[in-house]
Amino acid sequence: MSAIPYSSDVLDRSVPLLQLPDVAKNLGLVVTRVQQMLRDHTLVAVRRDGVLGVPEAFFADDGEILQRLPGLLSVLHDGGFRDEEILEWLFREDDSLPGTPIAAMRGDLAREVIRRAQAMGF
User: Fold this and answer.
1) Is the backbone peptide bond immediately before 98 cis, with ω within 30 degrees of 0?
2) Please, how many CA atoms are within 13 Å of residue 118, restricted to the half-sphere of its CB?
3) Please, which residues have CB within 8 angstroms of residue 42's CB and are 6 or more apart in sequence?
4) Which helix (H) or strand (E) holds 87?
5) pTM for this one?
């Protein structure tokens, strides 16, 4: 089995992370399935203080992965972006949204975020 992919922690320290066992519990999965999701680029993890974690903002209030997040991550990876670049973009303030792209993914602007991601890849 291949190593679990993770990104350098390019996020602000104020961005909360969920450790992989917590992600698994919230999703009702075993940890190895969450690790496979990281390998499949359905999720992105960072290593902070020696522990792997997934940004809490990737999950809806019910604990499920944001509906359009896996597709967005796929678009960005297919566009040639590395995990660090994806995380930086998702959590960077964008006055035209307003807020950050990841915050916009939680509301009515999810399609606009995906459209912008598609345009960035070309």
Assistant:
1) yes
2) 7
3) 65, 70, 73
4) helix 83-90
5) 0.92
Token pair 């909360």 in the structure block, residue? 16
Cβ-proximal residues to 52 (8 Å cutoff; 6+ apart), any chain:
4, 6, 19, 20, 45, 46
Distance (Å, whole) CA 89 – CA 77: 13
Q: Token match 């020696």: residue?
A: 50
Summary count for the chain: helices (H), strands (E): 6, 3
pLDDT digits (tens, 9 = 90+) for 33-78: 999 999 999 999 999 999 999 999 999 999 999 999 999 999 999 9
Q: Alpha-carbon distance 112 to 118, whole Å?
A: 10
Burial class (CB in 10 A: 0-12, 13-18, 19+), 92: exposed
